Amino acid sequence: MIDQGCDLTIAVGFNLVDAVNVAAEANPEMNFVTIDGWSNGATNLKPVNYAMNQSSYLAGYLAAAQSTTKVVGTYGGMQIPAVTDFMTGYYYGAMAWGADNMTDVTVVGWDPATETGDFIGDFVPNSGTSKTIAAGQIEAGADVLFPVGGDQFGAVSEAITEAGIDGRMIGVDKDIAATSPEYAEWVLTSAEKRMTLAVFDIIKAIAIDGGTFTGDVYLGTLENGGTALSAITNYSGATAQADVEAKLAELQAGIVDGSINPLG
User: Fold this and answer.
1) Has keyword Chloroplast (predicted)?
2) Same domain for 133 and 164?
């Protein structure tokens, strides 16, 4: 892309962060974007990050509302901030439902206080390790699982089916019920990372609006639509879905105005 004279190069994923930092420093006349990455200081490299704790907080609240056991689970691909941010928001969202309803809720797979939990060790899709973790969390009583490790939805759906429970899972990054319909019957919602919106906004600001490219961080939030909760499907909790949706809207407003901290 550099050799082809691209004005803007976008690198997606933390695995490319070292390479894009090197490229930006070596080519100061060109502009670069790193999604889920960071800049070592080059002013021509814009990091795009997401406050995934925000939508995940809503997902955790919904998970606890859905759960019949009041045990919900989460696990990650690797223990890195881009993963644990989801898991921490989910944890505190589930705890918030418990506090609101004076009911004990247990989250297995992640404890933000001790920063310990369940991790696959990589992001290989639907690995045996992923399925083993999911099965272990189900055995511990979890009936809603939130796998934060790329495509682990085949592994989770198999674990749910083999356990013979009426379980649900929550997708990450995109609306899994829509993009992977083979898993739709198990999906409760998804915590979306709307990368397309960030990329559109950055390109529009330069190419259409005539703005100046900067290395300032673009943070996707509930407020700017950079992250969001997908439509709720397969909900069967004791509280009416309309009431849960109204509460989620209230929580989202609180996160946006700062009165609710999704990180506890």
Assistant:
1) no
2) yes
